[in-house]
Amino acid sequence: MRHPNEGVLRRLIDEPAGVSDADRAHVAGCAVCSRALDDARADAHLVGAALGGSGAVDADAAWARFSAASAPSTVTAFRPARSAGRNRWGTAVRRPAVAALGAVVLLTGAGVAAANDWLPIFQTERVDPVEVTATDLVQVPDLSSYGDLQITEEPDPEQVADAATARERTGLDVPEVAELPEGVTGKPTYQVAGVVGATFTFSAAKAAQAAAAEGEVLPPPPAGIDGSRIRFEAGPGVAAMWSQPTGVPTLVVARVGAPKVLSSGVPFETVRDYLLSLPGLPDGVAQQVRDLSTDAATLPLPVPAEMVTSSTADVDGSEATVLTSRNGLFAGVVWVEDGVMTGVAGTLSADELLAVARDLR
Amino acid sequence: MPAAATRDAVRPDLEDIFRREYQRVVGVAARVLGSRDQAEDVAQEVFLSFGRSPVPAAEAAGWLSVAAAHTALNLIRSGRRRASREESVASAAESVTPDVADTVLTLEDRSRVRAALARLPRTQATALVLRHSGLSYAEVATALGLSPGSVGTTVRRAELALRKELNRHASPE
Asked: Among partner residues A42, A70, A187, which is closest to B48 by beta-carbon distance?
């Protein structure tokens, strides 16, 4: 009798009952087929282990999500847990460490407001990345350690029905995407947010206390710094988002009033140099900020060095910052023109996003 | 796959089928993608399409499984070029482990598996994933329009190709 073929041997592993008695008898008594069967079993085991499984899933939660996303009368919801909410903006402004996750935040459309709070008096005209590492993030001090931070205006982000409503609420045109990249389908949802404002009042006593807690000595504050006030403003903002059914954004196109910082009277250089000299700020980060913030117009956008690479590209005459996650799963492009910051981000390649950016209407 | 185009005609048996098949659909997609989060996104897409389809309930399991496999394969073969990027990353990491079985559970090897899956002929890749997701030979045959006798051969060839791929990367040069 000739040997059964490889398909029969393979089935013998999974469904022996589906193999004829004659074939089973042959394999049992044939050294060649037994070896081939062992090989097939080893390969099946190997591939089974390599493919793995998904573990248990929560079908009830999945159904709830599915129902919400597919209900005829509702637009696919952008999930607040992953996105800009009232707390997110407030928290981001309070904690530079959170703000430093720039590329991630960009995806939510809130990035521009989150980008910076402890940096100087300026009007953003361009954006440059500042690389921070995980270690830096742990080291970056909370701004509230050095004074009092008050959120004076909440952006109250909300979803609106269409681009016209978004414009009416914010005065900003929602950028129109000329041609959607491959894999992005459907209609976008629209988010708007108002102005976010915060005021920081520097306290030399509080800063000295924070430094002492770290075993450091606070550098002597320059004249006029103690009790001085710095005001931060950004917004309003609009965003169009194309999402997967679960709410994860595939493509986000956002436009926001570029951040600016106002001082109660202390010059930009004084504030910058003093903030950068405070204990706790990693030297590498301070140096990068010092290098690029000589003109009171460059917004340092903290990007996590282990996760994101950055480069520049031209978008219709403006120099844009291009951020790409090292795992290749998402990217973002951001640039500033006439006091308005525009960002395009998503789970697409940088080239695809640049094509979108250059064709925005 | 059409995403959120027309959502008006949702079939009445959708919830029952969703609850019954969701685990398996996620499992199929997860085997292709190696990521449960992405698999759940794929599952939602697949059920959206199914909800608007006239597929008989009796054929739902096979239809959903094939749709999940195809959607997931499309994802790793799409313009996002994830598979090739992951493969590049994986190739950069030198591996000299003699026992392949010991290495397959690492993330890098899972990435290699996905890259290899993306290169297999579509029917082989789908049959392999469906079989390892627990579908019987008869179910795989019906779902893919194959003769039951050819399922074993298709699965075996896919496994050989994947094993070769894993050995190629794992053996010391």
From this structure: A70
